[in-house]
Amino acid sequence: MEMLPKKPYRTLDLHVDPDPLEVDWAAEHLAALPVVITMHDTREVNHFFSNGEWFRHGGKVTVTWEEGTMQRFRIHLDRGATGFDLKWLKRRVEAARAGLFGERHGWRQSTDGIWYFRWGAGVSGPISAFEDMTPIAVCDEPWCLEQIHETDGPPVHVGERVDSDDWMIEVTQCGSDPWELYVELSTSTLTVAQAADLVNDLRWASGSVAKLNAPRAVA
Ligand SMILES: [Zn+2]
């Protein structure tokens, strides 16, 4: 007797278009929710083999929107997660905000009613491609504007940031080094008015750095 083929592993099509009702619902309930990033204390990123294919689990994203709940997305990374995992989960958040939310789009509801989406994608190519990536860590400085940092060096914390169309200026501190400016220009031509704005922003950020580096008076 011929063996029946195993029921194929359910793979999810993440490119199903949302219908207009889903788009409207998401715009009303999800679009404005903030995102926090946390990391699991113990559970580590893992790879598992199923039906002839490698899968990777690197975290999940949960969401609550009703009154009386946290009303936020939470990206919950597994220990050892990399920027790749975070990017993937952030993309699910953006997709949910755009209407790709609900069971039809791969979201599930846990027994306590919280909706979640697990990052458990099939991996084509060698697993080592992921293991070579630098793990990230959640920043524990409450004032830092970055929620996560790479772990291949001391964290570069961001205290203040000016973001315009043509430049970005950050007041940063790498580990316990003195504060400094980080500047990115995305244009090489500026009008006189823009140049004046840039000088203004730089002056403001430099003042901030000088203040932060000034020796503190001992009480
Ligand atoms: Zn930081």
Strand order across the largest sheet: 1-5-4-7-6
> Which structural class should the secondary elements be placed in?
alpha+beta
Q: In angstroms, what is the radius of gyration?
A: 22 Å
Helix/strand order: HEEEEEHEEEHEEEEEH
Q: What is the domain tally?
A: 2
User: What is the percent of helical residues?
Assistant: 10-25%
Strand content: 25-35%
Mean pLDDT: 87
The count of helical stretches stands at: 4
Distance, first to last CA: 87 Å
**Poorly predicted segments:** 1-9
Could you give a quick summary of the protein structure above?
Helices cover 23% and strands 32% of the residues. It has 219 residues and is of the alpha+beta class.
What descriptive keywords fit this protein?
219 residues; alpha+beta; 5-stranded mixed beta sheet; 3-stranded antiparallel beta sheet; 4 helices; 23% helix; binds zinc ion
